[in-house]
């Protein structure tokens, strides 16, 4: 089932998610719905807060980067198979130089800006079977993970922009929260009365 994506301005996007365990109700169904929602919206990742659930869960499918000829072949191959569920993740270590990349977010349609993030991270997480994994991610895989991880920490990519950039997009963000935006997918706006 395709779920509405929560728009900028909704308080759930500012909450720190709570950890879950294998008894979380209808978890398999939730993950399947999140995948369907992410694919319908042409996203690379989707965090539970973006569908209104303040829990530490997100999904990533970075396979669209497989066709990016600007990337090294090794990175393209890795991204082609970087399709995972991350439950209760933790970033253990961040390393390397910060680098800029133009990011967007399904909760903030039509806003894209360069965001600086560290190039390598080591993370620990549980998969959908609640098996624990520790992996090191580099480049775009690390970036997509950090973007989704921010969501479960109540942080949006716009928070990482300079004060000048924030001022320049302020009106766009206000319009998004009021539902004055056209997205190609279902959205739930915080400042729009539901009929």
Fold blueprint:
Blueprint: E1 5-6, H1 27-40, E2 45-47, E3 57-61, H2 73-80, E4 83-105, E5 108-126, E6 132-138, H3 139-152, H4 163-177, E7 187-188
Parallel strand pairs: 1-7
Antiparallel strand pairs: 2-3, 3-4, 4-5, 5-6
Description:
The two termini are 21 Å apart. The protein is globular and about 40 Å long. Strand 5 and strand 6 form a beta hairpin. Helix content is 26%, strand content 31%. The strands form two sheets. Strands 2-3-4-5-6 form a five-stranded antiparallel β-sheet, sandwiched between helices. The chain has a two-stranded parallel sheet with strand order 1-7. It is α+β, with helices and mostly antiparallel strands.
List keywords for this structure.
two-stranded parallel ribbon, 195 residues
- Spatial ordering of strands, largest sheet: 2-3-4-5-6
Fraction of residues in helices? 25-40%
* Distinct helical segment count: 4
Estimate the global geometry from the Cα principal axes.
globular
Beta-strand residue fraction: 25-35%
Summary, kept brief:
The protein is an alpha+beta fold and 195 residues long.
